[in-house]
Amino acid sequence: MKENGIQDMEQFYELWLKSQKNEKSEDVASQSNKENGKQIHMPTDYAEVTVDFHCWMCGKNCNSEKQWQGHISSEKHKEKVFHTEDDQYCWQHRFPTGYFSICDRYMNGTCPEGNSCKFAHGNAELHEWEERRDALKMKLNKARKDHLIGPNDNDFGKYSFLFKDLN
């Protein structure tokens, strides 16, 4: 920059933009470099080309397989696999517990456990639980297809019970 009389990065950027507008940007740049007698080398010219891993769900980039495996096995990532912002608005009942049957005590009007009961309180809640399970299974299958979940990863925290029949 000093040899070319460029005062700051903004001026450098403006020159770069002008060179990009020309169809012969490579020719223009190489001619100006040859005229000055020196070739400008940037550190990125020598950087190795890497295979990047990008998680479109989290917006995270990983530089290595090890870093990628660590990301896709994290609880935070897995939560994003199963959770969408619409979930809070489209479901009416409690989160499923894994016992997909109706509580006999609730049907008799005497379930003392209330919201902590592991069984569905009515046909509507049971039907919603089954729909949620199906929706979560579709999300899991898409995540596996997109390689956002390890093929042998079956540890899903609070969602694990939903996939007992897949193992």
TrEMBL record:
| A Pfam match | zf-CCCH
The organism is Pongo abelii
Source organism, top-level taxon: Eukaryota
What keywords appear on the UniProt entry? Metal-binding, Zinc, Zinc-finger
Q: What is this protein called?
A: ZC3H7A isoform 16
Cite the residue ranges of zinc fingers (C3H1-type).
102-124
In its UniProt record, a GO molecular function of this protein is: miRNA binding
Q: Where is the C3H1-type domain?
A: 102-124
Please give the InterPro entries that the UniProt record associates with this protein: ZC3H7A/B, Znf_C2H2_jaz, Znf_C2H2_sf, Znf_CCCH, Znf_CCCH_sf
| One annotated GO biological process | miRNA processing
Q: Looking at the keywords, is Magnesium present?
A: no
